[in-house]
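INFO  loader      accepted 1 record
INFO  loader      residues=579
INFO  predictor   begin
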Amino acid sequence: MSRIRSAASALDRRAFLAATGAAGAAAGLGLAFGGGDRPAAAAPAPGPAPAAPVPVDAPAVPGVPYTRGTTLAGVATPRGTGYRRLAEGPAWPRLVRSDLAGAHRGREDRRTALASFVQFTDLHLVDVQSPLRYEYLRSETASAWRPQEALSVAGVVSLIERVNALPGGPATGAPLSFVMTTGDNTDNNSRLELDWFLTAMSGGRITPNSGDPRRYEGVQDSGLTLYWQPDRALRDADKQRGFPHLHGFLDAAIRTLHSPGLRMPWYSTVGNHDSLPGGCYAPGDPFFTGIATGERKLETLPADRAAQVWKAVRKGLDPKGTDFKALLASQAKKARQVTPDERRAPFTRAEYLAAHLDPARTGPGPHGHGYTAAHLDDDRLYYAFRISDDVLGISLDTTDPAGHYTGSIGDGQLAWLKRTLRDNERHANAHVMVFSHHTGTSMDNTRPDPSRPDERRHTGAELIDLLSAHPSVVAWINGHTHKNAIVPHPGFWEISTASHIDFPQLARVIELTDNHDGTLSLFTTLIESAAPARTDFADLSQTGLAALYRELSCNTPGARTDLAGNPADRNVELLLRRG
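INFO  predictor   done
INFO  writer      dumping tokens
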């Protein structure tokens, strides 16, 4: 296959990217892939053909491939039994997967870097004091409440610090050009959480507190043995498992901290916890706003009622929250009185878009982080953007406004996706990377969107069939399951990444290369936050809290132990045929 593009095909590609709006969305990324050290234009415009791709003979990072700062060098690993302390452990090596194409010798000397970026997913920045939370289901599921949740902001800031310190793609040395979040950036669909997320990503001061500005008011100072009471000598259920007594923990958890913000552009993809109250109930009911902003917080529930509620949530039996509202009403007298806070109100889709479009949130760009004023006008949360001259990105909205935590897409979005893929292959023939929150196996929610009742909803299986029919598609990148998993589909790889709230708290660097032998390689490299693996219970500084965030997550009772995935789901080179 020729490594030289014709001038006509290059110009046609740029024209397509400009026509779809994808090129404009990525203006300012400073990409230099596939063209030596040629800087990317500020905006796409007709002009001379770009230089032919050249191998990465002089990478941006000396000593490529490198391992420092990644799980290729070492991983925080639990030691002992009972409450396990963390320490630096063995590295996770890189494996080569040839499920979709064979590996040819010498490709490391020929390859050209086409894309290099970072995926964040399931950050779950959480207001742990919100009355809308259902922590009282902890006896049924570990995801209802986690001992580490009060430290989510410190953990995410440390992850941002890690990415800022990376010198480039670990496999190619190409500059990291952006970060994509693949949903569940917030936990309770709360305006306050959205503010924390946007501030963390763009930079600024965050006070992870709500309600009473002087003190914490939540389940961790309730005196209930169901929850870890870090500041009390009370022998709660978690201390019986070895959790420490940490005087001053709650004061430290709500202390103001500073995020440097990402030093590179970032894009946003929406998840069910961003769109739906509780991550599972249909939005728009003023009841949820009243509970979230009010002065009553339910913290305990009889075991039989908890089992009933969790069954309804897990199976999607109450997508509108009718039974949930009845439950809260029946338990109102047993609820704790807390300080009301209007900032806890659930945000609407329009408010989500407007917050991203706020110029104060632009940071290193792009303005809107993938969204534009047109998306606000159209009530649309999906878009295309240019990753590089050779790669097109597509961000989908897989949440279902009808309720439940599984996903799907509607007729309108599916038609747009088909058109975008078809037009790309006709005019640009760029490689395509698709981003979404839900995975192929977690898109089975076919309830009609209440605002578009005539639209049919489409499943993950249908999406896999569509993407497989387009040879330009090389990857579908997502989250939701909180587990590392990499699955081959005909023609492309599905890459699912673990969350940053459940252990082992990871993000992923993704690099795409052309091997100039008829194959492409997708390199994925997992990274942890910048916090040290080893913790010090006396260190309640911002960095110390981030380290403790990871260790507590390792010890969460009932949490799944398979979320890191197998070695083939972690640091890998994924081969596929060049379409």
